[in-house]
């Protein structure tokens, strides 16, 4: 009798253990699970994609020979969550992206103002990064990609094989709460979010929106992207048009948000409805913390600290672009990113090209 009860208890415990395991890793029984990863990399390095200068920036800084930039708020955003940052250049051959990504633990595609049809720019670089990240994840090599605003639009554009699908909309200087879908807690992005963060996002106009393009759910469906991507929230632009505000890939650790949490914390341009309340800052940090938790599951690393030192953003100094009416307080401005790729990044001989290194003297 006792033995029977014991066996039953063991079986019950086993069943509940297996169920727990399932609950942890399976988002939805309909879908393939994101692979479970045991890695905990406590020295994550995030690559941030640069981009060609916007119209205003070309007017202000084009004469100084700058041709690409990264807004410092994105750098600080991930640094504040425990990352070191390596800039990723646009306009490079495919091997450059292959090489650099073997050393990174995630890539952030920042927002900005550029066209996807510009050759050798942001979107072409994004194409390489996306394809490599898909391959990594398909091979069980966990690799997160984060897209903010234009970066989110780029993710869906690349997933659609370069089909332009965005809708024109009007959402500049718009502070909005997130309108969550019923099942948003089933997403990886929000499954573990603290309740108070969800309350803030759901009830307070904390998300900073600055976009003239939107991706609608209908746009996703037309392209069949709704099979692979989960929409967690939608919002409405100034004219009431509904757009997707948060999205994630169902299988790969790819995340897109249409708003700008980095602006809450680091951008101070006045009268643009960027919320700096304590609650807005807390919610903004949640997104960076989540992305970095994902990046800690990647075990890529630079061959040595010395090689990493040649690549980190600390080699560059941001400039105070806010003084020239930019919506960014500070930007890292790059003069001609190195056109010749390092033969192999792992080689000790690799160094920054002179021209790039001279960026230090801005
Ligand atoms: C890219 O698209 C924009 C908007 O449709 C258009 O104005 C521009 O001329 C295009 N550029 C190129 C290089 O095709
Ligand atoms: C994109 O291309 C891939 C591979 O050719 C294909 O499987 C997928 O259906 C395409 N997706 C769209 C939205 O065109
Ligand atoms: C995306 O949505 C907008 C607005 O409804 C529409 O004008 C556009 O044609 C759509 N594009 C695609 C590819 O579905
Ligand atoms: C800021 O938001 C308010 C409404 O919440 C709106 O009336 C105002 O026009 C917005 N500011 C700008 C610069 O768009």
Automatic annotation (TrEMBL):
GO terms for molecular function: gamma-glutamyl-peptidase activity. Residues 1-23 form the signal peptide. Its EC number is 3.4.19.9. It is an enzyme of class 3 (hydrolase). It is found in: Secreted, Extracellular space. GO terms for cellular component: extracellular region; vacuole. Belongs to the peptidase C26 family. This is folate gamma-glutamyl hydrolase. It comes from Anopheles farauti.
